[in-house]
């Protein structure tokens, strides 16, 4: 679970060393066994500390009873562990949370910078419309700033009037996320009620909410042996890889690259419980997509709807999209 969540720094606190007379040999055996596991999982930064919580050895200060240990005490390490490189400062992602329009002269898009850095004057693209503009101002409670970066909460204004709603995203044109409805993900099941693949869950990712279904279970992971087991519906605390299809287009990155846009939760539509948490691995290729999961289509001429009513239909479909149901309109 630690490796799935992408936690970069781990402390192996080997407690009760007083019971083995602070033996270096015992400590080395535990450390080597644990490092063999973390190497397999791809976890690079593991700090091992021998300590006795009961007697305070190596908890706050270095202990004289472990002269063979050359590292820091537990508290010293926790206060100095480097975390400045743990945030993604390269890929600008700005999920819009709220459109602020106190008067006719101001239209701002409120939200939290999920990742990356943005400067006043930078060119941005609105997703999914793909319309381009430039940052006119970066507004905060303290006043206007020249730059914003994650995890700041700000209000961005644009030089052009672009229709952007909650759940949509501002990005830089030369650094785009994946845009799609189909992806593979690692899933951790958190609900006492087993998975039902016929159920249409609510999927919450950044500020976006849509309906989603688990279209395929690739495999489950045996947490004791790390073996991949045959797929089947998940039960409480089970972990595995699945394929998911959403009703509305999402803007996402692999979780390993960007935690903010690669994470999501599944919500049971009946109980409102959080059923699962997910870490997106990759988008699905066309040949891997379940062909039965296409977007619903409204063919207006075929339905006999007159052109003068198209605008009303488009408004209704757009509102349904904001509620998580994407529909394609054919007008010709």
Order of strands across the main sheet: 3-4-10-7-6-11
- The fraction of residues in strands falls at 35-45%
- The helix/strand order is HEHEHEEEEEEEEEEEEEEHEEEHE
What is the number of beta strands? 20
Q: What is the CATH topology descriptor of the largest domain?
A: Elongation Factor Tu (Ef-tu), domain 3
The assigned CATH architecture of the largest domain is: Beta Barrel
Fourth-level CATH superfamily of the largest domain: Translation factors
User: How many domains is the backbone divided into?
Assistant: 4
Largest sheet, if any?
6 strands, antiparallel, barrel
Total of DSSP H or I helical runs spanning 4+ residues: 5
For the record, what CATH class of the largest domain applies?
A: Mainly Beta
Rg calc: 25 Å
